[in-house]
């Protein structure tokens, strides 16, 4: 299958590498020129459980992409999604399926401005990846993903895409309710990512705070009220208990969430507007009070101004 990975940072490089290894014709598309140039010159450096290899996968800037693929997998950061969609208009063919695997909320609405609804697939992934530098992806652990078609008529095609992804070892499952899974994951990000970023701590340290149990429930309650407007039923206690299991160091306790890595460690902007900020914005639209998410969004934006000069 001809697959373009659009946004080929850490996660895009992971998916691109695994799909390429399984025999698909993969192209990595990214706006970071240094990254693209190194991949083309030296190959993508893949560090997998400590072992290094160089893999030849063609990479290009969005404006240089001309060939229409069968499948596009979107893996930009949330704030990079719309500019990226604008710059790849040339390769959005009539039958090009577009699978969105970004974290965060509201991407469906953004993609629908550029892509025929019948071609949109939404997903959520539990794989992880990191970048050690341009052209160098670091892979550890296992993962999975869920995928669902937007348009009810595209179920067979969505299942076929799951099977291509699974043949590459990505462990893809067809979901009957991916929107629920997307909101559920957004609750994890909206509690742990933003709190650990504001407090500058890891997940275990956050979980040990006496404020943590009530704080996460207050945040999730607002997510649940907004999610209900989209027909998504989140059980606050069930979501909170799921998050509390992650505090264990044998789970993700020692981990600093990606928002912490972005802002505190790498001085990059965060995806806050698509997580807590989305709940805050939509709360205003639906006349739902979201004081916790309003404050968290403001504090993370304030911290971005202090850190990113
Ligand atoms: P990433 O930051 O590695 O890549 C995103 C974009 O930023 C790419 O276009 C990349 O080239 C560019 N970029 C990265 N480092 C850069 C630098 N130093 N200078 C200039 N440009 C740079 O993002 P990611 O971790 O692959 O995440 C993509 C999406 O997947 C996000 O929505 C994220 O929340 C989600 N996600 C990430 C993980 C993970 O483990 N990384 C897991 C699940 C979901």
Automatic annotation (TrEMBL):
GO cellular component terms, semicolon-separated: cytoplasm
Top-level taxon in the UniProt lineage: Bacteria
- Name the enzyme's class: oxidoreductase
Q: What region holds the Ketopantoate reductase N-terminal domain?
A: 3-150
- EC number of the protein: 1.1.1.169
Which Gene Ontology BP annotations are present? pantothenate biosynthetic process
Q: Which reaction is the catalytic activity of this chain? A: (R)-pantoate + NADP(+) = 2-dehydropantoate + NADPH + H(+)
Molecular function (GO) terms listed? 2-dehydropantoate 2-reductase activity; NADP binding
Please give the InterPro entries that the UniProt record associates with this protein.
6-PGluconate_DH-like_C_sf, 6PGD_dom2, ApbA, Ketopantoate_reductase, KPA_reductase, KPR_N, NAD(P)-bd_dom_sf
Entries under SUPFAM superfamilies matching the protein = 6-phosphogluconate dehydrogenase C-terminal domain-like, NAD(P)-binding Rossmann-fold domains
Pathway participation: Cofactor biosynthesis; (R)-pantothenate biosynthesis; (R)-pantoate from 3-methyl-2-oxobutanoate: step 2/2
Keywords, alphabetical: NADP, Oxidoreductase, Pantothenate biosynthesis
Domain Ketopantoate reductase C-terminal: from-to ranges: 181-304
The UniProt family comment states: Belongs to the ketopantoate reductase family.
| Free-text function comment from the UniProt entry | Catalyzes the NADPH-dependent reduction of ketopantoate into pantoic acid.
Give the protein name, as stated in the record: 2-dehydropantoate 2-reductase
UniProt source species: Clostridium liquoris
């Amino acid at each position: 299958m001809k697959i373009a990975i659009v946004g080929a940072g850490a996660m895009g490089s992971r998916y691109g590498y695994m799909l390429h290894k399984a025999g698909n014709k993969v192209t990595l598309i990214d706006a970071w020129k240094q990254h693209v140039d190194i991949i083309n010159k030296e190959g993508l450096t893949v560090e997998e459980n400590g072992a290094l290899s160089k893999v030849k996968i063609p990479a290009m800037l969005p404006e240089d992409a001309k060939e229409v693929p069968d499948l596009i997998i979107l893996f930009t950061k949330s704030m990079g999604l719309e500019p990226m969609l604008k710059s790849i208009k040339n390769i959005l063919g009539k039958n090009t399926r577009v699978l969105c695997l970004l974290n965060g909320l509201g991407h469906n609405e953004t993609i629908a401005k550029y892509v025929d609804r019948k071609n949109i697939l939404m997903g959520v992934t539990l794989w992880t990846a990191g970048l050690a530098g341009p052209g160098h992806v670091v892979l550890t652990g296992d993962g999975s993903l869920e995928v669902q078609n937007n348009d009810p008529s595209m179920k067979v095609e969505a299942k076929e895409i799951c099977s291509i992804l699974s043949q590459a070892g990505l462990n893809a499952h067809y979901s009957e309710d991916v929107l629920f899974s997307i909101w559920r994951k957004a609750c994890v990000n909206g509690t742990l990512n933003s709190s650990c970023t504001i407090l500058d701590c890891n997940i275990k340290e956050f979980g040990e705070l006496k404020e943590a149990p009530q704080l996460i429930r207050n945040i999730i309650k607002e997510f649940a009220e907004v999610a209900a407007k989209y027909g998504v039923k989140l059980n606050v206690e069930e979501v909170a208990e799921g998050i509390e299991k992650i505090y264990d160091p044998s789970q993700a306790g020692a981990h600093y969430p990606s928002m912490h890595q972005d802002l505190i460690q790498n001085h990059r902007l965060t995806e806050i507007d698509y997580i807590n900020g989305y709940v805050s914005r939509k709360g205003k639209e639906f006349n739902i009070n979201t004081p916790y998410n309003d404050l968290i969004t403001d504090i993370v934006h304030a911290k971005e101004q202090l850190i990113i000069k």
